[in-house]
Write a structure and sequence with these properties.
The complex is a heterodimer of chains A (206) and B (440). Chain A contains 7 helices and 4 strands, in the order ααααβαβαβαβ. Chain A has 206 residues and is an alpha+beta fold. In chain A, strand 2, helix 6 and strand 3 form a beta-alpha-beta unit. Chain B starts with a helix and ends in a 5-residue tail after the last strand. Chain B has a 6-stranded mixed beta sheet. Chain B has a 4-stranded antiparallel beta sheet with strand order 9-8-7-30, with no helix packed on it. Chain B has a 4-stranded antiparallel beta sheet with strand order 10-11-12-13, with no helix packed on it. Classes of the chains: A alpha+beta (206), B mainly beta (440).
């Protein structure tokens, strides 16, 4: 799963939107088939994003964030016509929903700051949006310690967004530890992708 | 909750152990002659003891002998001799075996038995013989319901193991674990339980959410485990006999890493708030919980000492994950791991002599043991990813999960000396095993 130019194309297939939309449905009622489908879709999207994001000069959303009042630009990229401003897709494609961490670390890296700045600006612009920060760890640690580490990472992202003006009431956190890798590989690249904080929109998007 | 419907609780039928016919056993046990075939499980090198276990007479007799054979063989301390070598056939529990016939095939011990079914009850008589001293070491009778024949076989295995090693057995036990299916990206994790020999596997959750870190109570057929959903985590208590399941309650932030106290009356666990994890303990009767650590470091993976007075735990308060011990009220914290590498998941042996742990060093993972004061550290295993050690109730054997690079996790066992390492008898993918106490 090395980063390729395909990321953007796959992301605008609507997979993310469809997948994340289902997240809003009553979880209690969604059983295996739907559940599996949703996760599969999200995973595809996440993988693509991660592949992009891990490149030195990353793809959309990971570079320096747009300035204040930034307009999400429907149709600005190849095949981008379907992106609705304020939608989950807009957030994922144009802002970037994941930031990365060093091994056993939870401080916000310099390359993550611009992404989180852009996330906070987007969240300020769409004040009804609720997010859940999901902290993730690579597999090179034991299960419970990694849960704790993922919680630290989620909290770091949360604190950063709050420091940029996002109301803490809009942000919940959870740690998945090493239970939800986005890259199945066992290389340092894969580990790097799996050490992340994922900003998942849980409600209020268009 | 919906998961309850998925539950198939294992009903434990009471097993009656009748010390009906001790016969010569009591007298002969004390004689020095019997001692010559005892196994010292602490010795560096153990030659597995050649033992003959012919099919028992009667219904299920061959199956019972096979289960006993499998148990003793897997322990690494016994070398069962193949049935085809046996000279004497059709043994009778009421008659001494023909010792020269068993000496001739180099058997040092012999287990024979007879199954009878009467009035819907299964009765199994068995004998353990010392071939060289020509003495009976054990003569016992078990009765149960016929469908419980495997447990009878495990009880006999335990009796033989205990008589010949001097250590308690661990075969009439179960393993609760996390069954894993699917790819690495989105693995389905289902709470599962099986006999220690891999038989009778069944599922306790439906796989629609993540489960982690199940642990047995040492005093009852109860487990505690953690569930993880995007909305958050929860810790449950689950009674395997009644299928009653309950949460220990709501906490702000995540809760994880639950462990029973040895008396089953308390659960220690970690609570995460604002990114910081600390250890709490809850009295299960009053439901009052107390915070035991308040350090800004990660404090997790609590494990009670067998006497309940101390708790080993994992903390990175010193800069990297290491093992610590504190009194069970949170006082007297001290670090016990000082080797190079990262130490996690301390697990106190149920007999108290060792603390098992996972150690990460040089890109590899190890299961190791050390004394509770941190001395005598010994690494028992090495692989790409070994973790989650759990002790058999006799404190001689550990089960853990092992992942090869890119592969699914599998359950393995290793003895406390590190010599006897083998895959657990479960063909599927599993992690987070927890060994039950001996069943009643």
């Amino acid at each position: 799963m090395s980063g390729t130019g395909k990321c953007r194309y796959r992301l605008v297939n609507g997979a993310v939107g469809a997948g994340e939309t289902q997240l809003k449905e009553k979880r209690d009622m969604s059983f295996s088939t739907k559940h599996a489908l949703r996760l599969a879709l999200v995973t595809t999207a996440a993988l693509s994003m991660a592949a992009c994001a891990s490149k030195p000069k990353p793809g959309p959303g990971v570079g320096p964030g747009p300035g204040p009042g930034y307009p999400s630009q429907p149709g600005s990229g190849p095949g981008m016509g379907a992106v609705v401003p304020g939608s989950i897709q807009d957030f994922v494609v144009n802002i970037g929903d994941r930031v990365y961490f060093d091994f056993d670390q939870y401080d916000i890296r310099s390359d993550a700051g611009p992404v989180l700045d852009a996330q906070s600006q987007w969240l300020m612009r769409y004040p009804s949006v609720q997010v859940r920060i999901e902290g993730n760890a690579d597999e090179r640690g034991t299960r419970e310690y990694n849960l704790a580490l993922g919680a630290r990472r989620a909290n770091s992202v949360r604190e950063y967004l709050v420091s940029r003006g996002v109301s803490p009431a809009r942000i919940s956190t959870v740690s998945f530890g090493k239970e939800r890798p986005i890259d199945p590989g066992t290389s340092e690249d894969a580990y790097q992708r799996n050490r992340n904080g994922h900003t998942a929109i849980t409600g209020g998007a268009r | 909750m919906s998961a309850l419907k998925e539950t198939r609780p294992m009903r434990l039928k009471a097993l009656c152990l009748a010390l009906a016919s001790l016969m010569l056993a009591t007298a002969s046990v004390a004689t020095p002659a019997a001692a010559q075939i005892e196994i010292d499980v602490n010795k560096g090198e153990v030659q597995p003891l050649p033992i003959a276990i012919p099919a028992f007479g009667g219904t299920r007799g061959a199956d019972i002998a096979q289960v006993i054979t499998g148990n003793l063989e897997r322990s690494g301390l016994f070398a069962p001799i193949g049935q085809q070598a046996y000279i004497e056939k059709g043994l009778n529990v009421a008659v001494q075996p023909r010792f020269p016939d068993w000496k001739a095939i180099n058997a040092q011990a012999l287990v024979n038995g007879q199954v009878t079914v009467e009035g819907g009850r299964l009765r199994v008589d068995f004998r353990l013989w010392d071939i060289y001293s020509e003495q009976q070491l054990l003569g016992l009778q078990f009765t149960s319901t016929p469908e419980n024949w495997r447990r009878v076989a495990h009880k006999i295995s335990d009796a033989v193991y205990e008589r010949l090693t001097g250590e308690k057995g661990y075969f009439d036990t179960r393993i609760v674990f996390v069954s894993e299916t699917g790819g690495r990206i989105n693995r389905t994790k289902t709470l599962a339980i099986m006999d220690q020999d891999g038989a009778n596997p069944s599922y306790l959750t439906d796989g629609s959410y993540i489960v982690m870190s199940p642990r047995f109570s040492a005093t009852s057929q109860e487990i505690t485990y953690m569930t993880l959903r995007p909305e958050g985590s929860a810790i449950y208590l689950f009674n395997l006999e009644t299928a009653r399941r309950e949460s220990i309650g709501q906490f702000p932030g995540m809760v994880y890493a639950p462990r029973f106290s040895p008396d089953g009356g308390r659960v220690a666990f970690s609570v995460e708030r604002g990114g910081n994890s600390d250890i709490y303990v809850m009295n299960l009767k009053s439901r009052a919980s107390a915070r035991l650590t308040s350090d800004p470091g990660i404090d997790t993976s609590a494990s009670f000492s067998p006497d309940g007075t101390k708790i080993a735990f994992n903390s990175d308060r010193g800069g990297s994950p290491q093992l610590y011990i504190m009194n069970s009220d949170g006082s007297g914290v001290r670090r016990i791991s000082y080797g190079s590498g990262r130490y996690t998941t301390p697990v106190w042996s149920p007999v108290g002599d060792f603390i098992a742990f996972t150690k990460q060093t040089g890109g590899e993972f190890h299961i190791g043991v050390m004394r509770p004061d941190g001395s005598d550290e010994r690494l028992l295993t090495t692989s790409y990813l070994d973790e989650s050690p759990t002790w058999a109730p006799n404190g001689r054997v550990l089960m853990f999960s092992r992942e090869t690079s890119g592969g699914p996790p599998r359950l393995w066992t290793v003895d406390v000396t590190g010599r006897i390492l083998r895959p657990a008898p479960y063909p599927g993918s599993g992690s987070d095993p927890a060994w039950s106490p001996l069943l009643n």
